[in-house]
Every structure is written in C-alpha cells, then in structure tokens.
Specification:
Layout: H1 29-52, H2 74-113, H3 126-143, E1 148-153, H4 158-162, E2 169-173, E3 176-177, H5 185-193, E4 199-207, E5 210-218, E6 232-236
Antiparallel strand pairs: 1-2, 1-6, 2-3, 2-4, 4-5
C-alpha cells in the first residue's frame, strides 16, 4: 500500500491556463472563451470518472476507523479530486477575465457612443459587485455570439408554440448566455427552476442570406403531451 495514499499525487498550481507565466490579460475574448469551454469539457469528463467509481467530491474515502477503503481506488480518486479542484480554480480565473473584458467593452461603448447601461459601480459592497457582474453577463448576451443551436422541435410543444424553429441559434436563454451556459447545463437548470414561468429566448434566425434577431417567449411545462419541459433539443456551438 502507498504510504502517501491520503495525499493527492498531482502537483499543486494551475495547469489548464498555461502555467503562471501565461498572461491572461493578453488573450482575446475568443481565446478566453475557448479556454473556458475546454476547462468545462475536462471537468465534465473527470466528474464522469468519479461517478463511475460511485463517489463524488465529498464522499469519504476512509472507513469508520479511519483506514483507507478497500472497495475503491483511493489514490486515483484523490488524484481526480485534486485535478477537479485545480480546474475549478482555473475556471474562476478565466471567468474573472471574461467579466472584466465585458465591463471594459461596455465602458468603451458608453464613452464612444453614449450607450446607456444599467451596469453599476463595482467599488461598492459585495452585493453590488454580484449584481453588477450579473448585469454584465445579461447585457453581454445581446452582443455576444450564439452559444447553442436548435436541433429539433416537437410539434405543439412549448418550444414550437414559442416560435422556435430548427436551425435557430440561441444568443440568450433567460439569464443564460455565451459566458455562463457551462455546456448548456445552466439552460437545463434554468428550465427546471422556471416551470410555468415565461423565459425570454433571444435567437438569430437565418432566412436565405439574411439574419433576423428575435425575442421569443417560452414557457416550460409538462402537460403538452410529449417528453421534457420544452419539446426541443439544443446542441452547443
């Protein structure tokens, strides 16, 4: 048995963002988004491996008398957990830079074009900072790229009644957008939390060579006669 079985077997410190010598402030928004997506994909894969072992991040790896469990690979699980913790920290750092980029973008718009904005000053309380970040993400969805595409729509479903069509590209789904959708997991979470409530879905629709921007009202519900709350299938872009 490994004498250090209770100790993670990976080195500490960032790995996904290129190490401490990489200056994230010099990356473009596109580069940051690609890194964000890559980290989320890796987190999803590692979480699936943990699940395959029948454990999660909080499952005890020792018996009641504090011996390593012999029904699981304790060393591998601790290594996976250490990687997940590092990836989560890297993800937070990427998100911090994305939020700063959005803030700078809107500040530039205000200075150069006089565009009104509801973004508040982030120099206040913690609550004000949280609300401000939420405003950045909400406003960014209107200017950011689509993050998902409609792959199918069932007839007479909530999605069909809202006007969603095959091929529509989603720019925002309620409060979820290109910054915070986390491989569409946040869309599913939002839908579950808002059954029977109206969600505004902003889509881009191609009609020949023209693109039309639409705001659709979608009400998730179960009683429409089919599976799920929406009756449509979305795929990430």
């Amino acid at each position: 048995m490994d004498d250090n079985i209770h100790t993670p077997t990976v080195a500490s410190g960032p790995t996904t963002t290129g190490g401490p010598d990489r200056d994230l402030t010099k990356l473009t928004m596109v580069d940051l988004m690609q890194e964000k997506e890559r980290i989320e994909e890796e987190l999803s894969a590692l979480s699936s491996v943990l699940t395959s072992h029948g454990v999660n991040m909080n499952t005890s790896l020792t018996t009641f008398d504090d011996f390593p469990r012999d029904d699981i690979d304790v060393a591998q699980i601790r290594t996976l957990r250490a990687k997940i913790i590092r990836l989560r920290n890297d993800h937070k750092e990427i998100m911090r830079h994305l939020e700063k980029g959005i803030h700078d973008h809107f500040s530039n718009l205000q200075r150069t074009q006089g565009v009104p904005s509801s973004i508040s000053n982030t120099n206040g309380s913690t609550g004000a900072q949280t609300n401000s970040v939420g405003n950045y993400l909400s406003d960014a969805a209107m200017l950011g790229p689509p993050f998902a595409k409609v792959n199918s729509v069932a007839v007479a479903s909530p999605a069909d009644q809202a006007g969603l069509k095959l091929g529509d590209r989603i720019r925002s789904f309620g409060s979820v957008n290109w910054i915070n959708h986390e491989r569409l997991s946040k869309v599913a979470e939002l839908v579950q939390q808002n059954e029977g409530r109206t969600l505004i879905v902003k889509v881009t629709r191609q009609d020949g060579g023209n693109a039309t921007e639409l705001d659709l009202e979608l009400v998730p519900r179960r009683d429409w006669g089919g599976r799920g709350l929406l009756g449509c299938h979305l795929v990430p872009l």
